[in-house]
């Protein structure tokens, strides 16, 4: 009996070992597969997150573009404001049209050697005593109602109020003025053309940073008749100079400039092609010369070799 029990115990231990070995093998085989599946799932999640981030960025960019357009539609440009005016003072006059989100002052006359006027010390008040502002309203209707303040007198000067997105530059009602002194002001131009009719705005062209005048500008009237009266003043003296007055052809001048640019670009392309062709011709000529010289040297060597052979034969 003892022998039978010992044999049975040995068989049971062997079967248990086989079971453990089998389970370990299964874990090694199928456990690795499970780990691979988990890694694949993690990678897919990571890729999906990256894709979602890219989509979120695109959505955010689109939202920003839409918000910027909406903001531009609600903004109003206000020009010819005295330099002493503060945002709180300007807010008091424009709150009658609606709630204001923000006010930004721009177009300061900057001192030499400074690109941005960050403080009051950087502003050159001697060159220009006016500034421009951008007012952002909460709705588009409020901004449209604020345009009623255009060409009205505020803070002792006639202000210009216009949409920030649209240049209200109708050429039928505007004139171009030239040969003006560089230190002229909008109010003096307005007084000069006062008898011609009601003026909507005066815009003098200035340099970007220094804000010095360029001697040219535009005057827009409310009626077409006043343009005819204003052009009749061409050649008269304005602040010691003969003023030049013509009908505004801003679009035509831009078209002409674009045509000139295109012509220059074409001419530059042609010149480049000519230079390339000349360079290639010279390179080909040099190559041909080398080939000729090489072929000539070969012929000479062959002739000399033939002569030597003939001489040897004769000597024999």
Q: Describe it for me?
A:
The chain is of the alpha+beta class and 316 residues long. The protein contains six helices and twelve strands. It has helices at residues 2-73, 87-94, 140-146, 186-192, 225-231, 250-315, and strands at 75-82, 100-106, 130-137, 153-154, 157-158, 160-163, 174-178, 199-206, 213-221, 237-238, 241-242, 244-247. The mean pLDDT is 78. GO terms for molecular function: translation initiation factor activity. Residues 74-166, 173-250 form the RRM domain.
Sum up the structure in keywords:
316 residues, alpha+beta, Alpha-Beta Plaits, 3 domains, four-stranded antiparallel beta sheet, 6 helices, 12 strands, 19% strand, flat, RBM34_RRM2, protein biosynthesis, nucleus, Eukaryotic translation initiation factor 4b/4h
Low-confidence stretches: none
Specify the overall morphology.
flat
User: What's the CATH topology label of the largest domain?
Assistant: Alpha-Beta Plaits
Q: Would you tell me the overall average pLDDT?
A: 78
CATH architecture of the largest domain: 2-Layer Sandwich
At the first level of CATH, what is the class of the largest domain?
Alpha Beta
Strand content: 15-25%
| Total beta strands | 12
**How do the helices and strands follow one another from N- to C-terminus?**
HEHEEHEEEEHEEHEEEH
CATH homologous superfamily placement of the largest domain: RRM (RNA recognition motif) domain
Most strands sheet: 4 strands, antiparallel
What is the count of structural domains? 3
What is the SS-derived class? alpha+beta
Biased composition (Basic and acidic residues): 33-46
Family: Belongs to the RRM RBM34 family.
Protein name: Eukaryotic translation initiation factor 4b/4h
Region (Disordered): 1-71, 248-316
């Amino acid at each position: 009996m003892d022998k039978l029990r010992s044999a049975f115990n040995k068989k049971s231990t062997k079967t248990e070992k086989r079971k453990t070995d089998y389970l370990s093998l299964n874990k090694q085989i199928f456990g690795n597969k499970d780990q691979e599946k988990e890694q694949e799932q993690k990678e897919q999640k990571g890729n999906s997150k990256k894709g979602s981030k890219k989509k979120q960025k695109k959505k955010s960019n689109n939202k920003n573009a839409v918000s910027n357009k909406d903001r531009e539609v609600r903004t109003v440009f206000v020009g010819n404001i005295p330099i002493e005016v503060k945002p709180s003072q300007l807010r008091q006059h424009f709150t009658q049209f609606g709630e204001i989100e923000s006010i930004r002052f721009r177009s300061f006359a900057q001192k030499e050697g400074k690109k941005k006027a960050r403080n009051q010390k950087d502003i050159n008040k001697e060159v220009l005593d006016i500034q421009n502002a951008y007012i952002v309203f909460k709705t588009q209707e409020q901004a449209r109602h604020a345009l009623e303040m255009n060409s009205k007198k505020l803070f002792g000067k006639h202000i210009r109020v216009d949409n920030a997105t649209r240049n209200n530059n109708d050429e039928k009602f505007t004139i171009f003025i030239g040969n003006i002194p560089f230190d002229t002001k909008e109010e003096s131009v307005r007084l000069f053309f006062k008898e011609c009719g009601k003026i909507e705005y005066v815009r003098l062209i200035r340099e970007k940073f220094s804000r010095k005048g360029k001697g040219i500008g535009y005057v827009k009237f409310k009626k077409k008749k006043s343009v005819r009266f204003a052009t009749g003043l061409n050649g008269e003296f304005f602040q010691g100079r003969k003023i030049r007055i013509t009908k505004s052809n801003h679009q035509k001048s831009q078209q002409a400039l674009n045509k000139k640019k295109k012509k220059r670009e074409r001419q530059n392309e042609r010149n480049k092609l000519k230079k390339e062709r000349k360079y290639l011709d010279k390179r080909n000529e040099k190559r041909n010369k080398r080939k000729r010289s090489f072929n000539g040297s070969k012929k000479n060597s062959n002739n000399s070799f033939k002569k030597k052979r003939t001489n040897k034969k004769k000597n024999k």
